[in-house]
Design a protein that fits this description.
There is one protein chain. The chain has one domain: de novo design (two linked rop proteins), CATH 1.20.1440. Helix 1 packs antiparallel against helix 5 and helix 2 runs antiparallel to helix 3. It is an all-alpha fold and about 190 residues long. The chain starts with a helix and ends in a 30-residue tail after the last helix.
């Protein structure tokens, strides 16, 4: 065997080893990203599960618009379907807007604001919103790492050949992100 043949064999083995190494890194990053979105999805489902409680509390105190309650039911059905991250983000933003609408409407009903059921709902909603933010940050971190990995040269060549493409970040319009009044207790009037 000549020296040139040995060098060619060593280079081919090194190239194959490098391709396997990069492929495994891409697969790992992709799987971590899917797992992270699964966590986001799980926490978003917790938020959906709070909505029937809100409906019952609000129905008990108001003659709230029937169409709004129907919209919530329809939206929950749509959000339970599989969809892309960007479509999910759009639907979640609509869902957040609908919840904000209900929360703002509650301001007109002092008895409801003081109700124990509504206060429990409010506390649960704030907790879930915080969990969503944490899960969203983790997902976006794994997305950043995955995108960086498949965009670096020469990883981008292998990623393109294998069909791996850039993924979108997940930004959802959380109730706690804006200055929406969630805490309905006026502690100055009712100190504890």
């Amino acid at each position: 065997m000549s020296v040139v043949t040995i060098i060619i064999i060593i280079l081919l083995v090194a190239l194959v080893g490098y391709i396997i190494f990069i492929f495994n890194k891409i697969v790992k990053a992709s799987n971590m990203n899917f797992e992270a979105f699964s966590n986001v999805d799980s926490v978003l489902k917790k938020r959906f599960d709070l909505i029937p409680n809100l409906e019952q509390v609000v129905k008990g105190y108001t003659q709230y618009e029937k169409t709004t309650l129907e919209d919530i039911t329809e939206m929950r059905t749509r959000l339970s379907e599989k969809m892309t991250v960007s479509n999910r983000q759009k639907e979640e933003d609509k869902f957040s807007a609908l919840i904000k609408d209900i929360v703002v409407t509650v301001e007109n009903y002092p008895d409801l604001k003081a109700s124990e059921n509504f206060l429990q709902f409010q506390q649960a909603l704030v907790k879930v919103e915080e969990e969503i933010e944490l899960a969203r940050r983790y997902y976006n971190g794994t997305t950043r790492n995955y995108n960086a990995l498949i965009q670096k040269f020469p990883n981008n060549i292998l990623a393109a050949i294998l069909g791996y493409s850039k993924r979108s970040f997940f930004e959802v319009d959380l109730l706690t992100r804006e200055n929406v009044q969630i805490n309905f207790e006026d502690r100055r009037k009712n100190p504890r």
